[in-house]
Amino acid sequence: MTQLSSDFLRHVEHKLKAPLTTINLYSEGLLTGMGGTISPEQKEYLEEIHRASTQAVQLIDQLLGDARRSLTDTEQSALTHKP
Questions:
Q1: Which pLDDT belongs to residue 64?
Q2: Which DSSP state fits 70?
Q3: What is the pLDDT of residue 79?
Q4: Contact residues for 82 (Cβ-Cβ < 8 A; gap 6+)
Q5: Taking a C-beta distance cutoff of 8 angstroms, is the pair 6, 78 a contact?
Q6: How many other C-beta atoms lie within 10 A of the C-beta of residue 44?
Q7: pLDDT in tens, the chain (83 residues)
Q8: CA-to-CA distance for 43 and 7, rounded, in angstroms?
Q9: How far apart are CA 20 and CA 24, in angstroms?
Q10: CA nearest 1: which of 61, 73, 81?
Q11: What's the DSSP call for residue 30?
Q12: CA end-to-end distance (rounded Å), the chain
C-alpha cells in the first residue's frame, strides 16, 4: 500500500468517524432524555438518526479493518504513528 493509501485511511478515520460518533452520542443522549421530553414523532426520527449513523460507523470500521489487514508491517507502523 502506498503512502497515499495510508494518508487516505487516516483521513477517512478522522474526518468521517468523528462527526458520526458525535451524531451517535447526541442522538443517544436525546433519546435518553438529556434534552428534556421528546414527542413520539421526535423519538422516531432520533432512533432513525442513531440507527443510520451507527451503521455508517460500523461500515467505516469494517472497511478500515479490511484495508489495514492488507498493509505490510512497515505501512501499519507508519499509519499508527503519524498524527
A1: 86
A2: T
A3: 54
A4: 6, 10
A5: yes
A6: 11
A7: 567 777 888 887 888 899 999 999 999 999 999 999 999 999 999 999 999 999 999 999 998 888 888 876 555 555 555 55
A8: 38
A9: 6
A10: 73
A11: H
A12: 18
DSSP state of 81: H
> In the chain, count of helices (H) and strands (E)?
3, 0
Residue 28 amino acid letter: E
36 φ/ψ sector (left φ>0, alpha ψ -120 to 50, else beta): left
- Determine if residue 33 is left, alpha or beta; phi over 0 gives left, psi from -120 to 50 gives alpha, anything else beta: left
Instruction: Say how far apart CA 41 and CA 59 lie, in whole Å.
Output: 27
Please state the domain count of the chain.
1
Secondary structure (3-state) at 23: helix
Q: Quickly tell me which residue has 432513525 as its cell.
A: 48
